[in-house]
Write a structure and sequence with these properties.
Its cofactor is Zn(2+). Its EC number is 3.1.-.-. It is found in: Cytoplasm. Keywords: Cytoplasm, Endonuclease, Hydrolase, Metal-binding, Nuclease, Ribosome biogenesis, rRNA processing, Zinc. It comes from Solitalea canadensis (strain ATCC 29591 / DSM 3403 / JCM 21819 / LMG 8368 / NBRC 15130 / NCIMB 12057 / USAM 9D). Helix content is 51%, strand content 22%. The protein is of the alpha/beta class. The chain has one domain: Metalloproteases ("zincins"), catalytic domain (Collagenase (Catalytic Domain), 3-Layer(aba) Sandwich), CATH 3.40.390.30. Helix 1 packs parallel to helix 4, helix 3 packs across helix 4 and helix 4 packs across helix 5. It starts with a strand and ends with a helix.
């Protein structure tokens, strides 16, 4: 089992790495999966825009792009690209801390790997409910 964090085109220090890894592992297990290998690539808006264009043919800024590389249905393997520029901007817009918004986006990517979608309104509502649930679990882990 491996959870890795990388930076691309940004100088960013991730807080609470060990706690985040425990939380991610617990989330995956609670959803009924085994965590095998997940890479989080924290990057700039421009870096993620290029990923979005190259792999998804979307010419828009986004906060996250998730690639599911799982070969077995019960295992989680993936690469999750997160724009720290975008999460910080969204944190200001939503009146939350940068860490809180980053954590929401992290769990959002994990939930995608667990089979949740967010295109239809009912799917988005369930995704948000799950994000809120797991964010409360992160807070209850203590520091």
């Amino acid at each position: 089992m491996a959870i890795n964090f990388f930076n691309e085109e940004i100088d960013f220090k991730l807080n609470h790495k060990a706690k985040l890894k425990t939380w991610i592992k617990n989330t995956v297990e609670e959803e009924g999966f085994k965590l095998k290998d997940v890479n989080f690539i924290l990057c700039s808006d421009d870096y993620l825009l290029e990923i979005n264009k190259q792999y998804l043919n979307h010419n828009t800024y986004t906060d996250i792009v998730t690639f599911d590389n799982s070969e077995k249905e019960d295992q989680i393997v993936g690469d999750i690209f997160i724009s720290v520029d975008r999460t910080n901007e969204n944190a200001s817009k939503f009146g939350v801390s940068g860490d809180t918004e980053l954590h929401r986006v992290i769990v959002h990517g994990i939930l995608h790997l667990c089979g949740y979608y967010d295109k239809k309104p009912e799917d988005k509502a369930l995704m948000t409910e799950k994000e809120n649930y797991y964010l409360s679990k992160f807070k209850s882990l203590g520091s």
